[in-house]
Every structure is written in structure tokens, then in C-alpha cells.
Amino acid sequence: MKRDRMALMGAGALLVVNVTALDAQDGKSMVSAHIEEHGTTYGAIAQDIWDLAEVGYLETESSGLLQRTLGDAGFTVTPGVAGMPTAFVAEYGRGEPVIAILAEFDALPGITQDRSPERAPRPDMGAGHACGHHLFAAGSTAAAIAVKEWLDASGTPGTIRLYGTPAEEGGAGKVYMVREGLFDDVGAVLHWHAGDRNAVWGYSSLANKSAKFRFYGVSAHAAGAPERARSALDGVEAMNLMVNMLREHVPQETRIHYVITAGGNAPNVTRLRRGLLLRPEPGSAERAFHLRAGCGRSGGRGQGHGHRSRIRGHPRHLQPPAQRGDGRGHAGQPGTGRRRGVRR
């Protein structure tokens, strides 16, 4: 008799598993069918965002397009969350679990491309989607709406929520959304990225911290009175030389990127100021960053002039608001916290 009861329990368990698998398959088929049926619409959204190519925190039209699309599909849309005009949350459903999907939509400055698989820059544009965020935005929106349709059709309890996250390219919009507690009730967050193949990746990302260094010199005629000049560009180059030497002595996970933002316009003019944006992405961000900041101080002193450094407003270790100036600064925005060197 005991054996019979165990057999019945086993059959019951098998039945539950089979029904669950069947429901999951039906749900997958329904979601896939929605994507196929509305593929042209979502493709047009992606191409519109491609043409808009708006950089971080300025994605007004791209964000608005996504919000309208989700609102028309029945989502409750909350714009301007976490003090960012282009951030939003779109929600549909009831109860738990709360499943979140992220959507990025910012472009990269200084790189453009026409709708062509061959290299075809657009001289009329100042930015472009070199990282595929136009697909990211449209794909996440399509997924959220498809799941919403399945929730309606199946009567399944739960909430699907899409987060419009601005300024991924160096602005860390998601950090401010986390600080505001917008993810506190979320059971799982789904994140993906456009690529040339389908794959599941199971690794973490590096920490990221960046700063802008300004070097100040003394202007003079480069040929008539070179001994009176102190070149700010020399300080930048000295710093870069020392930073590149440090590559030999940092953890292997470390990545260091920089750009000279103001190098001058003519070689016979010794200008007063030069700028350098440094973005290390080390395994130990804080320690490695200050090593590079030390190179900046040395570069300025070695050339007989001062320098000033500014920590950009997106440290991804969630720096407490009290340490960020007014506590609300965003990268490239007024109110960003600063850390300065000596100016002479």
C-alpha cells in the first residue's frame, strides 16, 4: 500500500512537471508570435532611435518614443525618475514576481554611420549608435509588451516592468535609479546587449571611475620667447607617459583609456590650458585611479605649472550622496562633485 501511494505521488509530480513545461512552451510560442507579428513596428522604432542618435542624458526624443509606445500598449509610465529627465519606468500587471527589463538608448559622441553595413560616416551627425543601443531599446520594449500580452492571455499574476536607463555610455544612469530605490521590490532583472550572435554570458563587469585633468601653463611666442613659456600640453604628455608605464604594474584585469580633449590648434602657439579625460577600468578601481591621479600631479610639477583634476560624476561604487557636492550631480551636469589639485 505504501508503495502504491509513492507511485501515485510520483505520477502526480510527473504530471505537474509536464503541465508546467507545457505552459512554459505555450508562453514562449505566444511571445515569439507577438514579436514576429509586430517585427516591422519594432524595427522602425530601432531605426528612428538610430537616426536620432542622442547622447547620454540628452535622449529626449528617443526616451519619449519608447514611453509613448509602452503607454499605448497599456503600461503605466512614470517619466523623469531619479531626477533624470530622460529616465522612466513603465509597468504592467499586478503582484509578484516583479520582473524588470532594462532598456538603454544613448549614442556615442564623435562616431557616426549611415544605415549601411559598409563604413559610411554621416557628416551631418555628431553622434551615432556604435554600441547598438537603438536595438537594445527597441528589443527590450518589444519583449516587455510581448510579456504583457501573455500575462493578459494567461491570467498569470505578476508584474513586468521596463526601466528606461539613460546615459549608459559613461553617465551611469542606472546608479542613480538604484539609489532612489527603484529596484527594491524587483525579483529579477533581465539585461542583454545587441551582438552578432545569440549567447548567454555569465561573467561580471569591471568597475569604472574616470576624471578630467586640466593642466595650466604660461603662454608665450613659441619661436620668439620659448624660454618664457610653460606648455600645458607637455604636462599632459608627461602624465600619459607615466600612466602608460604603469600598465606593466597593474592587475591584469585593468583597462585604461584616455583622450586629449583640448590639445591646441597650432604648433607655434603655447597655450595656457590643455585637457585630458582619463577613464581607468581596473579590478580595484579606487587604488588604481589614485595612482593615475598621482601621475597627473607629477606631470604638472615636472613642467613647472599646476593642474586641476575633476572626478566625473559616475563612480559605480555608489558613492554616498553627501560626498558628491550637492548630492545630485550627474556626469557633465552642474553640481558634480569635484576633487582639485593645486593651480598656480
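Second entry:
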Amino acid sequence: MVDVGDPLAPRRIARIDTPGSSWRVAVDGDTVLVADWEGGVRVIDIARPEDPIEVAAVTEVGISRDVSLIGDLAVVAQDAHGLLLLDLSQPSTPEIMAHFDTPDAAYGVDGTNGRVYVADRLGGLFVLTLDIHKVLR
């Protein structure tokens, strides 16, 4: 955690170690998701920025390369395992909701306006439509 109140003098205020290699983050309010490579997906509570706390981890999913948040849904690029959708309506107990396999390796992911964009190493770009209300029943 870095305080950039003075952009010319950023100041580290906290740090939290993860078991893998932190690649990407997504933030929504007081919740941070970390795509932690071999460490899976880590859910960090930053309600107190000076004292971040890991509240959950999804580790049985393989290599996590990228993560994006769409409301209470996390979409995770899982390398050779494609795309993973997680329900984060209860951040301390994330639930695997769905999986989409890509032809090669999902490297990047982003979501907006009911669509999920997945960059697959050899498969190119996939654009998926997503009805959050159907996924999060």
C-alpha cells in the first residue's frame, strides 16, 4: 500500500506478502484481488490501509495471470486452464461459479458492460457475454 497524497513523495504505508508471485490486482472499495500466479487468487481486505488482511484464497485453480472485477464477480485468467468466474458477494468465502476453457493459455482478462474480454496466447481475443444475474443466483 502506497500513499500518493503527495505524488512527488509517495510513501509506503503497508505491505502484505503472498505465497506466489503477484501479477495483477483488481480493487473494489475495501477489497483487493491479487492474481498470485501459482498462489491462486488472494482476497485482501484493505478497510484499514495500514493493516491489510488476507481474508480468503482460492488456490485449487492453477496459475492465476490476471483478474478483473464486475460487481460481485471476479473473472480470472488461468493460463492453460482458461477463464474462471468467482462469486465474491461474500469476500471471505469466494465460490467458483463457472469455467470457460480457451484454446491455449488465458493471459489477460477485463470485463465491462456485460462483456468479458479474454486474451488467449495463441487463440487470440475472445469476447464473452455475461449475464451477472444468471451467474449470481
